[in-house]
Predict the structure of Glycoside hydrolase family 19 protein.
Amino acid sequence: MNKDQFIKATGITPALADKWYQCIVDTMKEFGIDTPKRQAHFLAQIGTESNGFRSVQESLNYSVNGLQIFGSRLTEPQRQQLGRKPGELALSPARQEAIANIVYGGRYGNNQNGDGWKYRGRGLKQITFKDNYSACGKALNLDLVANPDLLLQDLNAARSAGWFWKDNNCNQFADAGDVKGLTRRINGGFNGLQDRIDRTNKAEAVLK
């Protein structure tokens, strides 16, 4: 995959391609994402996860209705209290932090006050939860538990996505063309499924 193919497969700007191309190529080589089909699915999934390669840190700037994505982890009064109201441009950092600590707290290693916010999604895949930061850090030889912001660095952001892909056997879904199964493995549900399908079709048309 050359840089021009990368631009066409992802639909990103040349400036973003300059930022990400080599990191992505190196990551795919390191983690066995080694066929056009696998590469197309990988680019599509991380494209959705990162809002088109524009974000490597989770935003919790949710509207009241948007917070329904977290289901029963937030009560209706909590959604009304913490969610973005009509006319508000963005939630304050304090309200975003409160959301993260409620919805991510008390599971997957997030046992201390503030762990939900500390270990919110980062990297092109949006690695989340202390247990995942720990496992990813061991694999990449980074102390992500002590310094989760290391995943905001370009190469680490890409490699963390590659690690997750390999560790969760995502190639099997890509090989089968199973976008729904792959989305569930990566996202835990089907959030953004149509966007993932559209991105996959676009990438496969370029990388075939």
Q: What stands out?
A: The chain has two domains: 3-55+153-207, 66-118. The mean pLDDT is 97. Residues 14-30 form the longest helix (17 residues). The CA atoms of residues 31 and 162 lie 6 Å apart.
